[in-house]
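Risk register update: the risk of archive-format incompatibility is retired. Evidence:
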Amino acid sequence: MQFDHLKRREFITLLGGAAAAWPLAARAQHKPARIGILGSGLAVTSGFLIAAFIEGMRENGLVEGRDYVLDVLWAQGDYARFPKLAAELLQRNPSMILVTTIAAARAAQRTAPTTPIVMTSLTDPVGTGLIDSLSRPGGNTTGVSTMAQDLTSKGLELIRDIIPRAKTFAALFNSANPINRRIVNDLPKEAEAVGATIQPAGFATPGELEQVFDVLKLRHPDALVVVADGMLIDQRERIATLALQHRLPTVSPILELADAGGLIGYGSSRIDMYRRAAYYVKRILDGMKPADLPVEQPTRVDLVVNLNTAKALGLTVPDTLLARANRVIE
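Archived output:
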């Protein structure tokens, strides 16, 4: 009996130890997924978008540190760095890669053709050849696409509502972004429809921004259209400050530019798009293939008017335009 009792006690002790070890073993087997991000700008000026993505992950039941870890590499506004950054990221064996612009997506596709890629807010991924179609993206890339190519020309009409005499629009764009070049090439046709002309003002790195505005000062445009781009989002405060110094009313699909001091923002919320990108990450982590996840486009377009900037420029915003605005900054 003593032997049986001892054996039984040893068995219970062993069983209890094993039961205590099971959760530890399960936790050890659950390694957080590494989510790589190729960011366009700097953490200090674009970090709010990463925060929106993290919020979206929480909404999808994923907690940073427990379910995933972020590995963010920043191009600091120089898109020529993306191939090197993509190669560096691939060495860390990410579960997937988030991309913030066309150049980042191309670098990731070439460097990691089998790694899932999620777009956070890219313009015209079909036209630039990143995916086959919105409904059937194919390959290893899916996510959220913007409609910035359709919204940029609308900005010309909005500025004309405030400045009917405006005849010349400068178009500030990132020359390293192929879709930016395409949008600017199409703008003269749109401007002609409202009796205006376009002055392209391209630059490829943040260090060239002041030089571009020095050139614009000599050209005397009536207003400035800022084309949507990751690097330009990052530089929104510098752009708004320089535009105000040069007495240039601005309009852009980048809503954050209006918050920084631009006159008009007309576009979709990138915060919402980054938050929505988390849905794709969750589905892929659950076993879905990017090729089977249709690309989404935002259905809401917001109009933001900065009345403080209008007053600083000596402009009167019509009541009809203010009535249409989703948000007025004053």
